[in-house]
Design a protein that fits this description.
- It contains three helices and four strands.
- The protein is an alpha+beta fold and 105 residues long.
- The protein has one domain.
- The protein has a four-stranded antiparallel beta sheet with strand order 2-1-3-4, with no helix packed on it.
- It is globular.
Length: 105
């Protein structure tokens, strides 16, 4: 995928979901990952389909609700930050970053 195609895909995704809180797990593309951050500093990356298979979450679950369904090793289970990132480019930077739920301190 070249840069123009990537920009078009990102623009299409943002047009379909102007409010990131309405994104569901089945709306994610295979190149998108979900990152969950805890105030203790732990960051967990979930690749496409892992939350449905490993954690048995329904595909129609809102990505925003992950902040209440997942738990950190430190015991915190509320106020986790959730974001979606796209595939990385040649420099290792993600092509897109959508903050679904900000990290509560």
């Amino acid at each position: 995928m070249n840069a123009d195609e990537a920009k078009r895909v990102i623009a299409d995704f943002r047009a379909r979901f102007p409010d990131p809180r309405t994104i569901r797990l089945y709306d994610l593309r295979p190149d998108q990952d979900v990152f969950v951050r805890c105030p203790c500093g732990r960051v967990v990356q979930y690749q496409y389909g892992v939350l449905q298979k490993k954690h048995r979450l329904p595909s129609d679950m809102l990505v925003y609700d992950l902040r209440y369904r997942l738990r950190c090793e430190c015991g915190k289970w509320r106020g986790l930050g959730v974001e979606i990132t796209g595939a990385a480019n040649a420099g290792g930077n993600p092509t897109e970053r959508i903050e679904v739920a900000p990290l509560e301190k």
